[in-house]
Amino acid sequence: MGNELGKYTNCVSARSTDKEILKKAQDGGIVTQLFAFALDAGIIDGAIVAGPGDEPWRPRPIVATTREELLAARGTRYNISPNVSLIKEATRSYGLDKVGIVGTPCQMQAIRKGQLYPVGLRDVPDKIALAIGIFCMENFPYQSIVQLVEDHAGQKLESVKKMEIGKGKFWVYTERGAVVQLPLKVTHKYEQPGCHVCLDYVANLADVSTGSVGSPDGWSTVFVRSKSGEDVWSKAIAAGCFETKPIDQVKPGLELVTKLANEKISKNQKTVEERMKFGVGKGLRNPYIKP
Amino acid sequence: MKQQIPAATPQKPVEQPKEEVKSKEAKPVAEKITAGHIHLSGCTGCEVAIADNYAGLLTLLDRYVDWVYDLTLADVRHVPKMDVAMVEGSVCIQDKLSVEEIKETREKAKIVVALGGCACYGNITRFARGGQTNQPQHESFLPIGDIIKVDVYIPGCAPTPQMIRNVCVMAYLLLKGNPDQQALAKKYLTPLMQLAERGTEACGCDLMIEVVNQGLCMGCGSCAAACPVRAITHEYGKPNVNREMCIKCGACYAQCPRSFFNFDVINEYQGILDAITGALQ
User: Fold this and answer.
1) Among B218, B235, B247, B262, which would you mutate to test the A interface (most chain A Cβ atoms within 10 Å of its Cβ)?
2) Do residues A47 and A179 both lie within one domain?
C-alpha cells in the first residue's frame, strides 16, 4: 500500500519523564505529557480529553485546563468518548483560543473535515492548536465493555485497574492482582459497527499520533506529522519531557505498525465494497463517495 | 432614444481644491468574479455571517469578488447578471415577488449557492404556518431547491463565516484559477454540490437514517458540536436528537464525517487551509 502510515516527518519510540504521569498512563504517557507541556508553554489554553464519567470505565469528554484535569484522564478506556462534541463549546463557554484535542483516527478526520468544511463550527477552524491522534483498530460501545469484563472475564468493572489490547489479546487487570485475558476472537463481535468502514489506523490526520504498537512495554510509538506537531514536539523534547529511542532500534518497530495498519485498512476496504452490494440490487451508503 | 449631444469644447478647467480621494480601485483587478446576495425569507443572519469575515471580507472584495447585488449593501434594484448568487432564505410562494426573484436569479447567475438552512432546507421557515402579521396569508415557504436547480449548498443556521469564506475562494478558483486550482476547487465543491442534489429536506433524524441506521456512526461527536440549538447530545456514544428542538438546518448531517468524507481533499487540509488564509492576507 505504501501510505498506510500517512505523512510524517519524524517517528520515534518515546515515554514521558514524569513519574506521576507514568503511574497511571496506558503506555508512555505521551498524550498527557504533551498536553501538560503545551498547557505550560502556552501552546494550548486547554485540551478536550476523555475524563472520568458517571460509571466505572465510562469516559466523558471534558475540557481540561489544568494539569490535575489532564491527570484524571490518563489511561485508555476502550469505549466511545465523543470528544469532538466539545470542540465548539471549548471556544465558547470555555473561551479557549488555542484548543488541544485528543481522539481516535475518525475523530481526527472529523476535526480536519471541520476545518475545511466548518458547516456548524463557527470560528473553530483557526483555533485547533494541537490535535493528538491515537492508534485505533476499533472501538466498543460502553455496554460491550460491561459484557466483556463482567461476563466474559468475570470481573466487576469497579475492581478493574487497567484494560489493554495487545499481543493478540484483550487484557483485564484487577486491583487485587487478577489478570484475565480474552482472545480477540471473543471481542470482535462486540465492536462498534461504524469502525468497520474506517480506513485509518494511525491517525494520519493528527498533528502528532501515538500508540503502543511498535514499541516495547511502557513505551509508545510517536509520529510527528504537521508543522504544529513538529513545533510542539521539538519544544517538548528540548524541555526534557520525553525520553526517546530511534524507532528502528526498538522491537517490534515500524514493521508491526505497518502490518497492522495494512490489515485494518484492507479488511475495512473490503467491508466498504461489500456494503455497496449488501442487498439485492441495493447497497448501503458509502460516505467516501457521496453524502 | 437618447439625443446625441455634441461634446462640449474643452475649456480651461476651473482650478478646484483637489479632494483627497483614496481610490481602492486605482489598480482594478480585471480578473474578479461577480457575486451577489439575494435575500428571500430569512433573518439576515446569513448575511451577517458573510460580514463576520471582517477584514477577510474586505480582502475578498478587494481582490477576488465584485459584489454586484445586495439589498442592504449595494444600490442595485434588480438582480443583474453575475457569476455567483448567494441566496439567503426560503421562498414564500404566496409572495409573487419572491417567486419571480428566485427564478430571475437562476436565469442571471452561473452558480446558485443556497446560503444557510432556510435556502437549503427551509430551516425555521418550515414551521411557519401563516396567520401572522405582516401578511397573514403568507404561510407556505419552500427551500429554493424546490423551485429552481441549485448548484451548491452551504447548510447551517447561521452558516459559518469560515465556510462562506472557503466557498468564495473556491468559487473564485473554479472560475478564474489555473487548471490545478480549478481541479482543486472542483474537488472541494463536489460534496456541497452533491448535498444540493440530495434534496431539500433535512432534520436531526438524518443522523439516525443516514448514519446510525446505515451502520456508519462511530460516535465522534461532530453532530453535537455543529448543532446551533443544542438539540443533540450523545448517549453512550451515539447521537440523541431532541426533535422538538431541531430547526432542520442540516448542519449536523453535513458536518458528520460519515455523511461525506473526501480523502482527496481532506488529506490535503494543511495546504488548502494555508492557501485560503494566505489568499486573504
Assistant:
1) B218
2) no
Whether A146 has its CB under 8 Å from any CB of chain B: the answer is no
Residues of A in contact with B170 (CB under 8 A): none
Please report, for the domain that includes residue A161, its CATH number: 3.10.450.750
Same domain flag for A109 and A131: yes
Query: For strand B141-142 and strand B91-92, is the pairing parallel, antiparallel, or unpaired?
Result: antiparallel
**A chain contacts of residue B217, beta-carbon cutoff 8 Å:** 194
Q: Residue B22: pLDDT above 80?
A: no
Q: What is the pLDDT of residues A23-66, one digit of tens each?
A: 999 999 999 999 999 999 999 999 999 999 999 999 999 999 99
**Arithmetic mean of pLDDT over chain B:** 92
Residue with cell 493528538: A132
Q: Which domain holds residue A149?
A: 140-190
A53 in B contact zone (CB under 8 Å)? no
Q: Which residue of A has its CA nearest to B227?
A: A120
pLDDT per residue over A83-102, tens digit each?
999 999 999 999 999 999 99
Note whether B30-201+262-279 and B206-255 share their fold: no
Partner-chain contact A196 B237, CB within 8 Å: no
Q: Which three cell numbers stand for residue A125?
A: 477552524
Which class would CATH give B30-201+262-279?
alpha beta
Same domain, A128 and A151: no
The share of chain A scoring above pLDDT 90, in percent, equals: 98
Query: DSSP states of B172-200 as a string?
Result: HHHHHS-HHHHHHHHHHHHHHHHHHHH-S
Q: Are residues A78 and A108 in the same domain?
A: yes
Terminal alpha carbon distance of chain A: 26
Say if strands A10-16 and A242-246 run parallel, antiparallel, or are unpaired. Answer: antiparallel
- Asked if A195 has any chain B CB less than 8 Å from its own CB, the reply is yes
Phi and psi, residue B37, nearest 5°: -120, 125
* Residue A205 contacts B where some CB pair is shorter than 8 Å: yes
A72, A204: one domain: yes
Handedness of CA A194, A132, A136, A68 (dihedral sign): negative
Phi, psi of B114 (to 5 degrees): -85, 110
- In a mutational test of the A interface, the residue from B184, B258, B280 whose CB has the highest number of chain A CBs within 10 Å is B258
Q: Is A112 in the B-facing interface, judged by CB distances under 8 Å?
A: yes
Q: Is A1 inside a domain boundary?
A: no
Task: Tally C-beta pairs within 8 A across A and B.
Answer: 180
Question: Does A172 lie in the same domain as A265?
Answer: no
pLDDT in tens, A145-178: 999 999 999 999 999 999 999 989 999 999 999 9
Which chain B residues are within 8 Å of A124, Cβ to Cβ? 162, 225
Residues A151 and A47 in one domain: no
Q: How close A19 comes to chain B (CA, Å)?
A: 31
Counted domains in chain A:
2
Q: Tell me the one-letter amino acid at A73.
A: A
| Interface predicted TM-score (ipTM) over 0.90 | yes
**What tens digit of pLDDT does each residue of A220-249 get?**
999 999 999 999 999 999 999 999 999 999
User: Which class would CATH give B206-255?
Assistant: alpha beta
- Per-residue model confidence (pLDDT) at position B134: 84
Domain locations along chain B: 30-201+262-279, 206-255
- What cell was used for A28? 508512555
Separation in Å, CA of B99 to nearest CA in chain A:
27
